[in-house]
Each structure stands twice: as structure tokens, then as C-alpha cells.
Model the fold of this input.
Amino acid sequence: MVVEVRSRAYCEARQRAGVLEDGSVRLLRDAGVARRLDQQGLEHGGIYLQFAGQRHHIDFRELTGGRTVTVYAQTEVVKDLIAQRLADGGRVHFDVTGTDVDRLTSDRPVLRFTDAGGGGHEVSCDAIAGCDGFHGICRPAIPSRLLTVREREYPYAWLGILADVPPSTDELIYAHHRSGFALHSLRSLTVSRLYLQVDPDEPVANWPDARIWDELGRRFDLPGTGWALKQGPILDKSITPMRSFVSAPMRYGRLFLVGDAAHIVPPTGAKGLNLAMADVAVLAPALDALLRGDSRLADDYSDTCLNRVWRSTHFSWWMTTMLHRTPGADAMEAELQLAQLRYVVGSQAAATSLAENYTGYPGPYAPPPGTH
Ligand code: DHB
Done:
């Protein structure tokens, strides 16, 4: 049973991430929910890194032995999962209120909620997957003395827009610029997704459309090449704060935290959605075994997931701090960022590290034997 406090329309419209790792695509195919993904997803074999007025291509296929990523919006994944769940005869309760979880360390944890029609429910469960995000109720249901939290806030935010205009590029562009970071992504061959580094406390009202295009044009500019950013009507506009956050362990009795309920990464590098799907890939067989009386995979769930979570937390922090302008940073820091960027585009070893992290590790990331 799935319970959701938002409406189905809200879940299916909210603009979120859009880049799926190889492994996430395979997971969706294996689960039989990739029909539209296979029709509409756009495979990408690399990215551009732009800095100091030049754009450099990082070729994932060449660096990783053929691995790629696929652009397909999280919103579309959500639509596909809801449709399949309903087609399979599963229950999805939208617009619920009064959610509560209880008796988590027993064999029959309890989920309470009030449905959209006002009816009260008390469900006796085998297990509860807390897929309820950073602000959800599941993580706070774990006694705080049992949790270790690691957290970092960044002194900037992303202003994201969806624009009804064909992308001005064949691959995503990550641009480091004196005025701040910018990212050119896409959702289809006719819709572009673009992001700008802005101050975290700035209201979206400070950013009328013309100012956004002006600033994007400046940050992606390639003087003397004739390249130009195509503009179009802005369909959606929002500001996202940026933080790294990891709460461990990810399990308490029969409650298993999944995705943002346990960990948040800053968006640079597109790891958030992929990490949530990697958690699910570990949880599904663990629950299957648990219900057959074998708790070993469930007992390993948190450690297995956290290995990958920390790898992605480091990668997202690295991409973020390499590419953004840190307010108040001194000239030393600015030079160190440029040195790192030159190294990534100039060294096959450094470029391979970026490519391997960006396309994602095959299977749950595990350290070499004997390291823990
Ligand atoms: C997108 C988001 C990201 O955070 C990123 O690194 C690349 C692409 C996107 O929404 O398309």
C-alpha cells in the first residue's frame, strides 16, 4: 500500500531532476516500467565543462567503456510508476492526512492515516518504507539518540527554469563563471531545463524572465564562436536551496528509510534521484528475504546503502564546490578551482574519475574486500 500526502496531479507535475544513471535505467527496465523511458529518454554520452571562456567535452563512453546517462524527467518516472501500480491493482492513497508510524521495532509495525474522504485507517504492516523525503515523518520516528547526522549547507541556491525552446547544445553544459555557476540541461528535443547559481535568500520575484536570459547568456557565452543561447517562453521557475545531509542508520526495526528521507545531496551531478533508486534496488530483495524469514539482507540494508550514499555525497560536494562561485572567496580559492577544472579536462585519470562517478557505479557500490 502506498500513502501520499500530495495529490496525484501535484506528484505528476512537480519539476524535479532529469538525469538517470545507467543502473537506474536498467532497474526500471527490469521492473517492467521502462516502456515510455525507452521511447522518450535521450541517451547522453558525455557532458561539457565550461570555464575561462572555453567549453571542454568529457566523453563518458570512451572513458568508462561505453557507459552513458539518460535524460528522462523524474516527473515522468513518477507518472510511469503510479500508472503501473494502479494497473497491477495496487492501492495508492493520495491526499492523505494525519500520517503516523508506530510499533516500529515489532514484527507488525503500524501505519495510520486519514484518507481523502475523511476515513481513518490503521494498517498492520510487514514493513514500512519511509520514502517521504527530507521533511517527512519517518526519520523523526527514529529515536534521535540512535541517529548520527552529518550536514553541510552551501552559501548559494539554484534558480531552475523550464523553457519551451529546443536545447542550444547536444550535451549538458556545466559552466563555471565569475558571476556564478550555470547549467544547461534539457527535457526533450523541444524543451530546455536551465539553472543559475543565485543567492540562497533571494526571492524568485527578483528574477524576471529577461534578467534570467541575460544572466544565462552571460555565463554560457563563448566569445568569437558564434554560439548563442536560444530563448523561449519560461514554463516553470523555482529556487532550490542546496545542502548535503546524511542520517544514519537508515533502518530502525521494520522501518527502512529510502532516498531523501535519509540523505540529501546538492543537485550538481544529478545524484539525488539515482541514490533513491539505488536504495530501492537494495531494499526490494531485502524485504523479499525478510518476509521469507531471512533477515540478513535487511540487517545489511543501512551499511550497503550508506557506502553508495557517501560516495555520491563526496562526488556531489566535489562537483558543487569546483563549479560554484563561493561568496566572499579569496583569489587563492578561485585559482584552486581553476586548477582543479584544468586537471579534470586535461588528465585522462581525472576525467575518468568524473565520468565513473557521473554515470554511476554498476550495482550497489561496495568498497574492496577488507576495507571495513
Ligand atoms: C539536471 C539536474 C542536475 O542537478 C544536473 O546535475 C544535471 C541535470 C536536470 O534537471 O536536468
Summary: Residues 365-372 have pLDDT under 50 and may be disordered. The pocket of 3,4-dihydroxybenzoic acid is lined by residues 17-19, 172, 183, 185, 193, 267-270 (CB under 6 Å). The chain has ten helices and 19 strands. The longest helix spans residues 296-323.
